[in-house]
Amino acid sequence: MVHYAYIKNINDDWSWRYVIVFASRTVADEWWRAVSTSTNTKYSDSVRRVTPQFFTHDINQANAAYSINDTQVASRFLGKVFFTLLPDRDGHAMSIIPPSDFADHVSGNFFFIRSKVSPHEYWYCPGSSVGNVTPNSKIYLSRNERTRFRVRLISERKDATGTIMIGSDEIAITLTSANLSVRVSRSSHLIVSKSPEPGLKFSDLVNGFAMVTPPPDCDRESEDLKELFKTDDGEEWELI
After folding, report:
1. Whole-prediction pTM value?
2. Those residues with Cβ within 8 angstroms of residue 161's Cβ, 6 or more apart along the chain or in another chain
3. What number is the average pLDDT over the span 130-157?
4. Interstrand relation of 110-115 and 237-239 (parallel, antiparallel or unpaired)
């Protein structure tokens, strides 16, 4: 789905204001990573992300609209992003972008993880609400229960400000109530362990996990708890 954002000149309230149109929310986060880590410091030092839909730039250093034409910045997004210059402030109409209602993917934040296809089904680790979880306990999908997880970059320093996570980042998914992380068992089921799953990427939340539907003759409690496993062709999940 197309994602929109505003960007304004930090030096005044009327000039060099744009609406940015991204091909998707994922593209927006990847563009921001490219700009904020660019070797062209005129961009990385002056463009700022205030919220997912509001940015600022210092036009005296760099015009963010030109980032998609600069090979040192974000030229690979030329076909996925465009900027529309807004009229000056006085006496002109202004385009209103639609709001986006989603959790910001900030490394180190706490999230519930749910199915995007069936948003009433959440990841759940029994006993996690009171910290009564042991290593090798399974992670399930449940309609009646949910567990909150902390999702963070493996490489992020403890003293660093939260980075916006993108698909290529290696991540750890941990319980908030116990020092245990999501890991993949030898049978490919999701369990919790004292160490995180090596090589787990943020993009795995797109299609890297699937559920096992319980058999028709199971009891009511088992019917609610569906096992989760790692796969290369799973369903899409979202953080909320």
Report:
1. 0.89
2. none
3. 93
4. antiparallel
